Structures are given as structure tokens and as C-alpha cells.
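Appendix C reproduces, verbatim, an entry submitted by the partner laboratory led by Prof. M.T., so that reviewers can inspect both the input and the predicted structure.
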Amino acid sequence: MKRLLRIIAIILLTAILLPIGIVAVYRYIPVPVTPLMLARNIKEKTPINYQWTPIEKISPHLPLAVVASEDNLFMQHKGFDFKQIEIARREAEEGKRLRGASTITQQTAKNLFLWQGRSWLRKGLEAYFTVLMELMWSKKRIMEAYLNCIEMGNGIYGAAAVAKINFNTTPDKLTKEQCALIAATLPNPRRFNSAKPSKYMCERQKAILKNMKNIGSIKFQ
């Protein structure tokens, strides 16, 4: 029994400390690859178009666009938007279409550290990584990781890849219109193509541009 308890204690301690170590390391170094990139590549033979780019070399319109589209309160919250979570819960109880209430920090945690799919274990780990990132990283670092590692097309990950493949430019030269189109794809980047926007995407682009104007700018410390 003592041996079993010791093994359980070691497993629990590892489960607590390993994520802390990984988050601490990624606070300082570029993320080399993510579980999603590897899964798509292995299962579907999808190429990995990815190049880490410092946020200073990414158009300032892009973080503003993703905040306007995905997470208006990104600079204020501590990783979770409880108001949106409650709205999503009520809508689900009323039988409405399920919608996400994940913040940019939660999406970054999921994409950087975890596998795809829905389970209580994955959601629990996502919440744990979200808390760690908000405690150990700045908002600037969270946004930098998000803009580099988020899927922005089939086999396209991050600002550098989407700028080159879809717009034949560099990430620092992306216009606000292009950034709004990129943000419009994020709910389903393998269905929506920022290089060939549908009518729906163009309407989303207009709404995002309007919200970008309302927000004004994002200032990272």
C-alpha cells in the first residue's frame, strides 16, 4: 500500500510540476511545434507551414483584429470570461446552437499544449494551463504565442505563414483589412479561406473592422 501511495504521489506531483516547467520554458523560447501541427501532419499528411515571428515583426492590426473577433476583454480578464461562459451555458440549456466562450488565453493553452477533442480531462488541463500562463506570462507573450501557433488555414500556422501563402507578403506588412479577414477565419480556419473570402467572410470582416475601430488600439507593457 505504501508503494502504491508513493507511485500515486509521484504521478500527481509530476502532473502538477511538468506543466509549470513547460510553461516556464515557453515564456522565453519560441514554440518549436504544437500537438495540433503534429497530429494533422501524421494523421492527414498535412504540411506544417510555420515560422515563429516576434510580435514586434507582426502588424499591430492583427492582435487588434483577433481581440475584436475572438476576445474583446483579453487585456482585462485573467484568462476566463465568466460572463460569456454563463451566456453560453444558458443558450445551451435553451437548446440553441453550441458556441465557444473560450478566451484567447484558453485557445492558446489548448493549441500549444493539448490534444484536440472534448473531454473533462482536456478541459481541466486547459484550465490549469490557462491559469499558469496568466500567472507566468505577460499578455504580450500570450498574444505572441497565439499569433504564431494558431491554425489560420489548412496546414497554415501563424502570422508569417498566412501572410506569405495567402497574401504574398510579410507579417509586418499585413493591412487592417487583411488582418480582419484572417480573424474572420478563426472559428473554422480549414473551412474559411482568407485568400478567397466568401460573402459571409466579407460580412464578418466588416463587423470586425468596426469593432477594431471601437477598441482603438492595444498597448502591451
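The longest helix spans residues 2-26. Additional entries are available on request from the coordinating office.
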